[in-house]
Amino acid sequence: MEKTIYDKMADKIFLSGSKLIPQLFEMIADKDEAELLMSMPGSPEDLAKGVGKSVDQVDGMCRTLYVKGLAFKSLRDGQTKYKMCRDLIQFHDGTILWPEATKAYHDLWQTFMETEWPDYARMITKLLPTAFTRVIAVEEAVDPGKQKILDMDSVNTIIDTSEVLAVTKCTCRVIAHKCDMPVEACIQVGNAARYTLDRGTGREITKEEAYALIKTCEEKGLVHVTMNKSHVGHFICNCCECCCQTLPLIISERLNLTAPSRFCAQVDPEACSGCGTCVDRCKFKAIDIIDDVAQINEEFCLGCGLCYGTCPETAIRLVEKRPVDFIPQ
Known about the structure:
Radius of gyration: 22 Å
Number of helices: 15
Helix content: 40-55%
Strand order of the largest sheet: 6-4-5-8-7-3-9
CATH topology of the largest domain: Alpha-Beta Plaits
Largest sheet: 7 strands, mixed
Structural class: alpha+beta
Distance between the termini: 44 Å
CATH architecture of the largest domain: 2-Layer Sandwich
Order of helices and strands: HHHHHEEHHHEHEHEHEHEEHEEHEEHE
Shape: elongated
């Protein structure tokens, strides 16, 4: 059977064979919009020649697709150019936050996450050399006497050095509804914040508001996640273990979907009372109580530092386990 244009769009973002991704594209883009997306990249002037429409028509369509989260724009050589979302992550994050997205659209995304996503996730962990995202530790949990916190290890530095900040809803919790954790919890940094504000899918926040949100998320037991690059910036997600794209599969199958921080939890056996608070707090099932002392499974520990915040004896801290070059340049 001949492929539809929506099947070809799924092919373009490396999801050939998916039954639901073409349906998601069809729900949000009519055929004229789909044809325009498949003609990208290009400026409205260039694209108009390919789709047989006026420049004004194409310009308006491009703007609509940009707001929908299907197209991304850049300014090059004095021209605004558009390109189609390049992969599943951009398609997911961009379109779910479209203000006019319907409940049916969100529900179909969640069906994809529960049925097709796990197999796709298993495949990409075998193909990609490293995870796209990385855990970033609760800064207070890092033992200051044993290592230095680098800029790329620090949520506070990412916030402090950003020229502009915005907050958006967590796309995973928007569609999953599996917990009562804060929904407006993803901090966008720098150009990502500018993109968010330009599309109207988030609101600008001050550095003080960002620090307060980080503190709230830590208290509620959400895991800080950022891009797995050595530069600071782009985003700070605050992830739960039930709605998140990656954490449930990391916990259940130990898939390398999100890299650990450079740190690992370490227990002072003399100070530990064996109360088990850290066992309950740990998302990744990396802590057990053995002979009345907390023991860390370093293979499972992602170095988030959440265990530190609820330890009544302050018997658990993060220490450096991985070198600086563990984080990709």
